[in-house]
């Protein structure tokens, strides 16, 4: 199985609605990437790793070095999915040149196929600058977590007429600029549907609509690693209790000296 390419992903929407929705999950480590790879079309090395892996309060503290280290691990652990790496806060907003410097490091040092950045019309010039220079860009509109301080929280976007219009025009702007796909996060469903119908590039939903051209979730969220998750997350597993049960049994066996047994120890020949 050859790794999916940007044109192949874009092509899945050729001529209207994607008949075969795009499957995307986040991955931060090589082993996680190995386990998810053949089930997905795209793996996203999301800056959500700030909270998920590093215990940071938001994505604002994530650095380019973190993204590169985890991006390289995910590329090493996968051979099928197209890997997209998030551009962290502060690494791209100031200018197209700054964005190119960050994105080219990500591409060269990880081997990923593209980068993702947050923003619509305001980032159009930057998206055009990168895509015209060989760096595929996935945009991200609606709830953009790097703007949490400006947005005032992580609530759904697009409840007002004005916001509705802005999200659709953001989508159009990033498409015009050359983005190969766009994530629509935390938007009311009619906007997700309108965006999907009005754009020629794939719209990947999260907290959006089943009508989108694809879906993405944070893997640890859908695996049930956290007690508190946004309402748009469906938990497909309850790994938190699986892991804590395993640790509880291990601890009991260490304390009672029932682990290790003969099977796990080396005896002289
Ligand atoms: O960082 C991330 O995981 C993301 C997805 C939720 C889209 O940007
Ligand atoms: Na992100």
Automatic annotation (TrEMBL):
Name the record gives this protein: 3-methyl-2-oxobutanoate hydroxymethyltransferase
Task: Name the chemical reaction catalysed here.
Answer: (6R)-5,10-methylene-5,6,7,8-tetrahydrofolate + 3-methyl-2-oxobutanoate + H2O = 2-dehydropantoate + (6S)-5,6,7,8-tetrahydrofolate
Give its E.C. classification number: 2.1.2.11
Q: How does it associate, per the subunit comment?
A: Homodecamer; pentamer of dimers.
Source species, please? Tsuneonella aeria
Catalytic residues identified in the record: 185
Binding-site residues for 3-methyl-2-oxobutanoate, renumbered to this chain: 47-48, 86, 116
Q: Which cofactor(s) does the record list?
A: Mg(2+)
Keywords from the named record: Cytoplasm, Magnesium, Metal-binding, Methyltransferase, Pantothenate biosynthesis, Transferase
Q: In which pathway does it act?
A: Cofactor biosynthesis; (R)-pantothenate biosynthesis; (R)-pantoate from 3-methyl-2-oxobutanoate: step 1/2
Family the UniProt entry places it in: Belongs to the PanB family.
Where is it located?
Answer: Cytoplasm
- Pfam families recorded: Pantoate_transf
Coiled-coil residues are none
Question: Which superkingdom does the taxonomy of this entry point to?
Answer: Bacteria
């Amino acid at each position: 199985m050859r790794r999916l390419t940007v044109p192949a992903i874009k092509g899945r929407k050729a001529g209207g609605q994607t008949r075969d929705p795009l499957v995307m999950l986040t991955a931060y480590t090589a082993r996680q990437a190995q386990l998810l790879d053949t089930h997905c079309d795209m793996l996203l090395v999301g800056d959500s790793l700030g909270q998920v892996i590093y215990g940071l309060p938001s994505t604002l503290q994530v650095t380019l070095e973190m993204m590169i280290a985890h991006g390289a691990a995910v590329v090493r652990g996968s051979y099928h999915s197209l890997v997209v790496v998030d551009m962290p806060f502060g690494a791209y907003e100031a200018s197209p040149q700054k964005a190119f410097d960050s994105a080219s490091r990500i591409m060269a040092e990880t081997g990923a196929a593209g980068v993702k950045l947050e923003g619509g019309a305001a980032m159009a010039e930057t998206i055009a600058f990168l895509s015209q220079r060989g760096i595929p860009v996935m945009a991200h509109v609606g709830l953009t977590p790097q703007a949490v301080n400006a947005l005032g929280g992580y609530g759904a976007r697009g409840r007002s007429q004005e916001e509705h219009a802005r999200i659709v025009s953001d989508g159009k702007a990033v498409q015009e600029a050359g983005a190969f796909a766009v994530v629509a996060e935390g938007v009311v469903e009619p906007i997700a549907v309108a965006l999907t119908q009005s754009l020629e590039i794939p719209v990947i939903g999260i907290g959006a609509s089943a009508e989108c051209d694809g879906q993405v979730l944070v893997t640890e969220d859908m695996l049930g690693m956290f007690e508190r998750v946004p309402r748009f997350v469906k938990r497909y597993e309850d790994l938190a209790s699986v892991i804590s049960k395993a640790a509880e049994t291990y601890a009991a066996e260490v304390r009672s000296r029932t682990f290790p047994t003969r099977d796990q120890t080396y005896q002289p020949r």
